[in-house]
Amino acid sequence: MEGYHTIRHMFEPVWDASSELLILGTFPSVKSRENKFYYGHPQNRFWKLLAGIYQEPVPDTVAEKKALALRHRLAVWDVIDQCDIIGSSDSSIRNVVPSDVAGLLAKSNIHTVVCNGGKAYELYRRYQYPQTGLEARKLPSTSPANAAWTLARLEEAWASALLHEN
After folding, report:
1. CA-based nearest residue to 49, from 139, 112, 165
2. Which among 34, 83, 107, 138 is most buried, taking Cβ atoms within 10 Å?
3. For residues 156 and 11, what is the distance between their CA atoms, to the nearest angstrom?
4. Cβ neighbours of residue 123 under 8 Å, at least 6 residues apart?
């Protein structure tokens, strides 16, 4: 398994008692692991997208990002707790140890799950759905690798899920 590294998720999910909608990614990128927080790559449009949908300033700090999510009753986590991966490549993910999404749902008010991209959705369906029984909605990835989707198109797709489901 040349180039692969076994990595465990390094930070906790963002949620509180008022969280109703869970946004699931796959696994933190190299930049996110360096920054110790979700969607840390400067080209990832996740935080800019949320700020646009909720008409707020784009958050810079971890505290501002957490506050933005929690203000809008959002939770943020990843479907994978540990895996073998090459860099940040979702397509290289192997030997998945899933996150305990069912455990989070059991202790929260979360009733809706959306997945940030096809790989997160695929992994949720495989590992978490059998335990949760809660359908998830697949949304287009905010990753810079998903260049076919402009920020405006992403906002349209994501707003329909975040504003109507939550």
Report:
1. 139
2. 83
3. 29
4. 26, 79, 80, 93, 96, 98
pTM of the model: 0.94
Q: Largest Cα–Cα distance of the chain, in whole Å?
A: 45
DSSP letters of 15-68?
A: --TT--EEEEESS--HHHHHHTSTT-STT--HHHHHHHHTT-PPP-SHHHHHHH
Average pLDDT over residues 63-90: 94
Which structure tokens are listed for 114? 């959306």
Q: For residue 53, give both structure tokens.
A: 């949908």
Distance CA 21, CA 53 (A): 15
- Report whether pLDDT(120) > 80: yes
